[in-house]
Structure formats: structure tokens, C-alpha cells
Amino acid sequence: MQWDRRSTLAALAAAAVPIPALASAAVELGGTKLVLLGTAGGPRVRKNRSGSAQAIVSGGNIYVIDCGYGVARQMVLAGLDLKRLRHIFITHHHSDHDIDLGPLLQLAWLTGLTTAVDCWGPPPMHKMIADYLKYEAYDIGVRQRDEGRVPLRPLIHSHEIHGGGPVMHNAQLRVTAARVIHPPIDLALAYRFDATDRSIVISGDTRPSDELIRLAKDADVLVHEAMMPDRVSQLLRSLPNQRALARSVLWHHSSAEEVGRSRRPRASRCSSFRISFPPTIRMFLTTNGLLQRGGIIPARSWLAATSC
Ligand SMILES: [Zn+2]
After folding, report:
1. d(CA 89, ligand 1 centre) in Å
2. Long-range contacts of 282-286 (CB under 8 A, 24+ apart)
3. 115 Cα: distance to centroid of ligand 1 (angstroms)
4. Closest by alpha carbon to 127, among 168, 160, 91?
5. 86: CA distance to ligand 1 center in Å?
6. What's the CATH number where 52 sits?
7. Exposure string for 88-114, b = 16+ CB within 10 A, e = fewer
8. pTM exceeds 0.85
9. What is the C-alpha to C-alpha distance for residues 121 and 65, in angstroms, rounded to an integer?
10. CB neighbours of 187 closer than 8 A, spacing ≥ 6?
11. Is the torsion defined by CA of 292, 20, 304, 203 positive or negative?
12. What is the pLDDT of residues 228-280, one digit of tens each?
């Protein structure tokens, strides 16, 4: 499994933009930007990491990939205007990737969104959005009548994706999906975003996947999930379902080592691990020389990959 793009290594320090700088950098929109909004793995709520979510800002529009817990607040903290939300892409229907899909739509509307948002993902996207709007129908109805807001339902366009291939394109971006391996989920997708100035690939959750490697060929940035197998049992030790959970985690994710092995040094400009356990993973990467091999950076929230 290889990428074959040769490019210069982006320095980690140059890629990390503090939050206040990010607020202006991302919104002023000099080019296509990737912002990592949530990098935690798994469905548990954590003190200092948010659920899986990324934003791509291009041409004044915001494209959100996955809606893990806290995505709307992470966007606000990153200086991203919720009213600029135009597209949402869900990689798969584990709750740590989609639990805030409905709340993000509603919160963007409550912030003043008046334009359409297209929501893309595997089935049952239509049902999930319809059910969420039913769940919040009372509040939505009250605010439409009492506060004079535009109706929310007509703004939301849901699209179900049934496999890999072209997804959508507009003046700023072309989006392509690939099926990845994440059992027992029926359909899990990675997405590639090709803008005029850069190409960005988001893996979602996956075991090592040749389709993902093909999708990421010549891309500038790959955000890839990773875990550390020999730490999984230890980290889940206190949970009553630890045995089943450990088996599940090991079965349908990629180890940091597998991800590191799958790419040549200096192959793609910048690959970012979206990981569950940052100090451990960073230590692991350093010990194994993966950071020094070039272009691999541990992901953390609000990291704006401006130099990748
Ligand atoms: Zn998953």
C-alpha cells in the first residue's frame, strides 16, 4: 500500500495554528483549509477532546466531515461561522461520527443559517434526518412562528451514498468516495476533496484499505485513523464489556504501525493520525521513527493544516 506523491515535508510547528489565529486564518479564506475539529476515538465523552469531525473551508463555504460529539461548539471555537455551512459528509453510522448531525443542522439554523445544507452519507441518512426533525419539531415550530425564522426543513437536502465513486462537485470542490473496511458496519466511506489548490482525504474509520490508498493517490493531506493495539486492553480494563470492546476495536481499526508502514517517506505531503490516545501515540510514533520519516503528524483538535 503506497502513495507515490513526492513533496516537501511540512513542519509541525508551521502547521499548528493557535485558536485566535485560526479564527481569522480560516474565515479569511485565502485558499482551501482543513481544520481538525475533533480527534477523539470512540463514543465516550472526554474532558479535552471532541468527537470525530473535520472542516474543509473552500471558496467561502464550509464542508464538515463527520459530526462527532461537540462539532458545532468546536466550529465556533475555531472561528468558523455556522451560517457558512453548506455540506456535511458522514463517513459511517457509528455514533462517534454522526451523533451531532441533527444538532449541527439545528444549531446552524439557530445561528442564522438561511441557505441550503446538503447532507451526504450511507443509508439511512434520509430517515435519520427526518427522525431528528420530528424529535425537535416542537422547538423548531415554536421558533419559526415566534421568532420569524425561515423554515428549517426545506433547507436540508439529504443524499444517500451506496458505494464508492463520484459524490458531488461544484465550482470549488470535487468530492469522491471510496468504500473502506470497518466491520460490522455495512458501508463505511472515505472521502476525497479535490480543490484547485489542494487535495484532502479523510479516512473515517477503517482497517488498512487498498481502496483508501487508491483514493489518496497524489493527495496533499491524508487524515487517517490509528490506534495502538497493545494499549487497548489496558485502556479498557475498567469496563464491564472490556473483552468484547477490545475485540471490536482491534477488529475494525488500523494500528499506527500499519498506517506508518503503508506510506513511503516523503510520499504525501502530510498525513495526520486521528487518534484516541495522543501522548501514547506520539511516543509510539517517535520511538518508531515515524515522525522523523516525514509528513506524519499526530492530530489534535483545532489543528489547521495550513502548511501541508
Ligand atoms: Zn466507527
Report:
1. 14
2. 284/228, 284/256, 284/257, 285/256, 285/260
3. 30
4. 160
5. 24
6. 3.60.15.10
7. bbbbbbbebbbbbbbbbbbbbbbeebe
8. no
9. 10
10. 92, 122, 123, 161, 162, 163, 179
11. positive
12. 677 667 777 777 777 777 777 777 777 766 766 665 433 344 444 454 434 34
Residue 270 lies in a domain: yes
Burial class (CB in 10 A: 0-12, 13-18, 19+), 35: buried
pLDDT, tens digit, for every residue of 13-69? 223 334 444 444 444 556 898 888 888 778 888 887 788 999 999 999 999 999 999
The alpha carbon of 30 and the centre of ligand 1 are apart by a number of angstroms equal to 33
What is the count of structural domains for the chain? 1
User: Cα(121) to centroid of ligand 1, in Å?
Assistant: 14
Q: State the distance from the centre of ligand 1 to the C-alpha of 24, rounded, in angstroms.
A: 32
Question: How far, in Å, from the CA of 94 to the mean position of ligand 1?
Answer: 5
Task: Indicate the average pLDDT of the chain.
Answer: 78
Is 6 a member of any domain?
Answer: no
**Cα-Cα end-to-end distance for the chain:** 21
Domain that holds residue 28: 12-304
Beta carbons of 267 and 242 less than 8 angstroms apart? no
The verdict on residue 124 lying in a domain is yes
Output the CA 205–ligand 1 centroid distance in Å: 5
> Considering the domain boundaries, does residue 1 fall inside one?
no
Could you tell me the distance, in angstroms and rounded to a whole number, from the CA of residue 25 to the centre of ligand 1?
A: 31
Rounded to whole angstroms, the Cα distance separating 308 from 303 reads 11
